[in-house]
Please model this.
Amino acid sequence: MTEILLKNADLILTMDESRQELPGADILIRDGQIDGIGHGLQAQGEVHDVSGCLVTPGLVNTHHHLYQTLTRAVPGGQDALLFGWLQTLYPIWAKFGPDEMFTSAQIGLAELALSGCTLSSDHLYLYPNGSRLEDTIAAASELGIRFHPTRGAMSIGESGGGLPPDSLVEEETAILDDMIRVVDAFHDPSEGSMCRVGLAPCSPFSVSRDLMRDAALLARDKGVMLHTHLAENDEDIAYSQAQFGCRPGQYAEDLGWTGPDVWHAHCVKLDGAEIDLFSRTKTGVAHCPCSNCRLGSGIAPVRAMRDAGVKVGLGADGSASNDNGNLMLEARQALLLQRVVNGADAMSAREALEIATRGGADVLGRPDCGRLMPGKRADVAVWDMRSIESAGSWDPAALLLAGPMQVKHLFVEGRQIVRDGHITTIDLPRVIERQNSLAKELQA
Ligand SMILES: [Zn+2]
Model:
């Protein structure tokens, strides 16, 4: 039995059913689970004095392309719209292999962890030069972060009228075979699971209708979740109407892509009927505010989604379209964008943090994460409120208005992976060096 006690927090934001905020409280962690929250708790093992700190659930990232940390701020893609941006980057990504996938995933996940993230999904939809999903699973496992990788795919290349070069697409039978392989090898459905695999054709414009339908059938058969990009911008809606004769929501519904086991990234252009569809079917949304700004896609109707009862989580999105990987900044940006559209009372800092924590956990089908309650997983972020960013803050619970934007300590399944602002589990300076040398090789 392992026990860890976090003692004397200035404030614990529990995100429990009644959103309790507990001043001067302790958290007792036992064997990866939260055992108790309250005052005057005692432990057998390690004790951390967290006075001067705010304690929250770990943040949850519902959409990312970790491999893209190797292509941040690429000159030809800095100012391009979505389709032009993809055409700039595809030839670079075509040079990737297992080492690039592993190293860039480790950088992306470590960056997320430093911003308070304890659970991240990833959407890997290209597998050049022998790359495999397990390259990223190994990166997450070494770091110690909870991971929901998705086996993505593209099957319509340039010669078939698609956008990606033929070298980056796969045969659909091979895609389905590999989906079965990675689910069987790596998916752990149990409570407290550190790795759950999902199925994720890249988008309706990069795979066939058959693959969308077959992936949905396979996911139901295996009991895993489904993920893709949907309704990202105006071009996306126009493409759906021209190619499929319907809006993206209808296309998704027709092919089995709605339900509590499905979440879609972006959904910037969902209309009222589609929001209603997502609400009725309990389909989730990964809101990626910085990426939407960066690519000029628009402002997702998050206020309307939340009011309609749609499950919404946050996504950093790939580092080729953000290019930052700080999830706390996403929470801040989500709040700012809703206020641009709907006024200063449209979203509170507490609601934005709720979306970033339990909101994301619910989108990923993880009611055991995203809240600090006895019996839930011990995924805990500790924020130093004596930092410069929060000096003078009257309300530490409004964390994302002021800061800090990086954690002091981070625990995943009760294991400390950030201590005093430093990653404990991997040699981060060495990984950064490796990443930079890989980026140089790609530029050559
Ligand atoms: Zn994306």
User: Anything to note?
Assistant: The CA atoms of residues 231 and 248 lie 6 Å apart. The longest strand covers residues 3-13. The mean pLDDT is 96. The two ends are 52 Å apart (CA to CA).
